[in-house]
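FW: tagging you since you asked about this chain on Friday. Here's the raw sequence from the shared folder, copied in full. Didn't touch anything.
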Amino acid sequence: MIFRDIGNLKIITKSFPFCCLLIVATLTGCLGGLQTTSTQTQPNETAPTAETETSQALAVLQLATPKPNYAANEAIPLNLSIQNGKFDLLVPFVSVATRGAFSQIIVTDASGQTVEPKHLITQENPQKYVVGNDGKTVRCIQGFELKASENQELSLKDIQKYFQLQPGTYTVTLAIDLEVYRESITEEHPEVLELKKDLARIQSDPNLQAAAKQDAVNYYQEQIKFIQERHKDVEKDIYLPVKSRRGRAPLVSNGITLTIEPETSSSNLQKQDEIPPQIDTSDIPLSPSNERRQTD
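HL: got it, structure written out here
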């Protein structure tokens, strides 16, 4: 645009040096601005969108194990920490609160070859129809509210149940495709649901007089508030409408190194010591009856 505008100007001979100086100053400012943009990244203070969720890590996965070396048949537990960022997230319950979080474990040997699992780590994520605040039934999955800066801890008892690890050194990493939803529904107490159904039927009844209808509405509203107050301290499951899915964030953990030690000769000797010795009967004198039997 700068060069197009300059081409339309009628440059006078006396003002030519000034115009050149102006062009040089303008280009210098543009280049300087480009350099600043490429070397500095401004923090994003806005809430994540569907586009940023697929490219930016909203949480950090930290994988750990109690010790680096294990015997061949020893259980190898894995501990997972999901450290959330600065946003409250609505995510599937199965992804952050069950063993389903470990479904994408990647194990590689010392040569970089991927070890195929002998059993897949699976966890069901059933869908359920839940009544929303507007009274409509919505298809949902069970959700989990991951608060900002919250640390969610999970553990897998034994990775050897899913991977047959021979003696050697392995690297273990974990991936999670964390789906993020924009809204949630808290399932009401069954009594509240029934009262709300009755309330909706009364409100839509054209045969009730206005005064009688208002009395009935007031009664049901008081009953609903009473039951909600009575169960306010009970932890309630939340559900995520399937249609409210806004995106996903692919997360990858750190890599941890495991060494499966081969069985040593001392352990074999110990096993042999545990076997009761066989009695050598060659030097035991025969009883008279046995001697006669042997002679015969």
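FW: The longest strand covers residues 168-181.
HL: agreed, and The radius of gyration is 36 Å.
FW: great, closing this out.
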